[in-house]
Amino acid sequence: MGFKVAVAADAAGVDYKEAIKADLEADPRVDEVIDVGIAPGETTPYPRKGIAGARVIAEGDADRGIFVCGTGMGMAISANKVPGIRACTAHDSFSVERLVMSNNAQVLCLGERVIGLELARRLAHEFLDYTFDPTSHSKANVDLIVEYEKETGADDNSVTSC
């Protein structure tokens, strides 16, 4: 069974999102691409799309997400507001590997104004190469994050829709 991948962007990231979406649709590892927007020519603030994409993952309708804005940082901050989501900006191969292998993150955020298109496409491809090992020493760190969410009530999925 392949991945279900949510993609999202704002106006500063829509061109890369469209290219990555096309790559994902052609990738045999991907069963479904869920595009939460935006479409070229639209303008929607990145928090709306980052949260919407993260909710798709938190609700179990997607396994991973690739979100693009100007720097990737706004999308990461927004996505991380959704309980249970771990998202981060990464602009190199090692960081993408560690995003999954050390942090069990579900969302890769990229910056269209920061890296070239071919690198973004390569990193998106590599993101699907990795699987978190629940027997690794990193699991203890991920467990601490999950426990904090539980202690603070952040895991109750009470995030309101944008």
UniProtKB/TrEMBL annotation:
Task: For this entry, list what GO says about its biological process.
Answer: carbohydrate catabolic process; carbohydrate utilization; cellular response to carbohydrate stimulus
Q: What residue ranges carry the coiled-coil annotation?
A: none
- Molecular function per GO: intramolecular oxidoreductase activity, interconverting aldoses and ketoses
Q: Name one Pfam family in it.
A: LacAB_rpiB
Reaction catalysed by this enzyme: D-erythrulose 4-phosphate = D-erythrose 4-phosphate
**What pathway is this protein said to act in by its record?**
Carbohydrate metabolism; erythritol degradation; Carbohydrate metabolism; D-threitol degradation
Assigned keywords, A-Z: Isomerase
* E.C. numbers: 5.3.1.34
Instruction: Provide the family line.
Output: Belongs to the LacAB/RpiB family.
Name this protein carries in UniProt = D-erythrulose 4-phosphate isomerase
- The organism named in the record is Propionibacterium freudenreichii subsp. shermanii (strain ATCC 9614 / DSM 4902 / CIP 103027 / NCIMB 8099 / CIRM-BIA1)
